[in-house]
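Q: Is it fine to ask for two folds in a single conversation?
A: Yes, each is treated on its own. Send the first.
Q: Here.
A: Result:
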Amino acid sequence: MGAPKPTLGFPSRTAAALALRADGQSDPQIAKRIGISLNALSGLFASAERLKTAKRAIRPAEVNGRTVLFPKDILDRLVPHATGRGISVNELCRRLVETAVEDGMIDAVLDDQETAA
């Protein structure tokens, strides 16, 4: 098994396939969108199911992290920025949020606070 291949803003083809299926897309639509055969897609789903049922050590990110969902159109608009940096869209999102938090830029980025008169 090779390294995960970032696909459509997800860290792997499996993650992309599972997300597209959760969005209600059919297997042929998913395979076409990812650029793989239906047989390969079936293999991704089977592998994901095996991993889900296999006992494994809990990863630190699963203990310490949380999942944040972004609208698909936002993720799609981030693709060129992530691609230009050679990272996944998910990694770009993590870096953007981390930078905004660490540099105290939340209020500047959102600009939703009323200014004192």
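Q: Second one now.
A: Result:
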Amino acid sequence: DHEGIVWDEFAGIWITFWLVPAGWHWLLLGFVVFRVLDIVKPWPLSWIDRNVTGGLGIMLDDILAGFAACGLVHLVVLTFG
């Protein structure tokens, strides 16, 4: 992605924090999980990053990373929270 485009990161992190309980540790966990998914780009994020072009491709991989991170954080909250 172009370094001037950051809305995809905002959208992904906002989705990650959707309904996450209050507390700095949950926010930190959400941030770390989202960044790891955004950097590593496991399948299907890697496929989308390579094959979906334009603005949709720029946004879609981070939005899906946000949903995945949100699910993982909520799984940790339900397990340990």
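Q: Anything structural to flag on that second result?
A: Two points. Residues 7-80 form one domain. The chain has a mean pLDDT of 93.
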